[in-house]
Amino acid sequence: MSKKVLILSTGDVNGAYEAMYKVAHIMKNMGHEVVMCVKHKTKNEDFIKTYKHLSSSIVQPSLLARIINKVKNKLNPVQPLKPLSTDRKYSFFSKDELKENIHVESMLKTVGFTPEFIFTGMTIDFLNSTDLLNIYNATKAKIYNITVDMNHFTGGCHFSWGCEGYIRGCDENCPAITKEDEKVTAKNNFERKYKNAQKAGFKIIAGSGLTLIQAQNSKIYKNQETIYNINSLIDTKLLNDKNKSIAKNIFSLSDDCFYILTGAQNMEDPRKGFSYLLEALEILDRELPAEQKEKIVLLVVSNSVNEEFDRVTFKKQKIDYIKDYRLLSLLYQAADLFINSSIEDSGPMMVSEALACGTPVVGFDTGVVMNMVINDYNGYKAPLKDSQKLAEGIRKIFELNKDSYNTFSKNAVKQVEEFSSYEYAEEIFKNILES
């Protein structure tokens, strides 16, 4: 039976926003009535709608409400919210969980129906858990938050960097906020988020092996009986290994070289751990004989390449960030290895994308690498920040004979088909929507 499904996301392109766009597509393909409501619309599909706040001439508070608000404003004038002083690496973007950012009637008018199910991803600068509670009170919809990062169960940060506040309850010791008199914000945010989740019965869906473990340990969601894990969302009709035999020719790459692909939208981001990758490459440079080093070529995809890459002695080639999935699929297939050096990451999606294209992956044991990359099967995992082990993993793939490499490649595809494909996600959403 068709359900009315609302997807909420700040945007519809890139990273976390793209993930929610994929969720919407999967549910549409399942035959449900789906609207993706965003603050910023980029794609031209009709099911994506930009939230429009009803004008004051349409939404008029009652006379009593206007009098009460006037008295309140005189007694306690509204002070502009000061920008928080934060450590940037935590991505503490959720500044105020108490504030109401949207009008529910405006939301429902924008959407065009009363949803039965709501799925949210990253909604920064759009709405928060208080807005979700208000929507729940008006619709009684079942609400599922998808962990594109940790924000759904923290006091404001998107990455914890080892802080366990999300487990015990964030407090005035928040390391993400640098000024002592502002640290209470994390405590207030967490307490409101916890109460809102209890009142509306929010549920969580994990987006990776790491966020599954984090959600299971979190104070807000630890009592949820079943937490599904969608492991990124890969459209295997676009991302697959069907052109692997000709992919190198398309990019004018040599069959005699071993191409290592790596990248991120911003390589300067400390979460991406590129300094450890540089160390691993330097280790390989010292250990490999000259004739083997000549075969290795580093392909770097990014909008911003770290200048430190200039010291890499292997041959290297910069490729501009690719948005076309058909071209990206061919690039993954052309590469012999994908390296994910992230040390604090809920994904990235590039890991599952590379595997889907039959490209083995070597990376640190975090994010989606935790359960999508299996040692001696489709790649290798290294302990966090262990450049030596990362180098060893790279070398193991590099030294595989042709038959062994082909087995790794087939296993990479199989892992995605079983645990990260649209078909896999459909089964999960079917269980949720029919519950």
UniProtKB/TrEMBL annotation:
SUPFAM superfamilies in alphabetical order: UDP-Glycosyltransferase/glycogen phosphorylase
Pfam family, one: Glycos_transf_1
Residue ranges of domain Glycosyl transferase family in the record: 270-414
InterPro entries, per database record: Glyco_trans_1
Protein name: Glycosyltransferase involved in cell wall biosynthesis
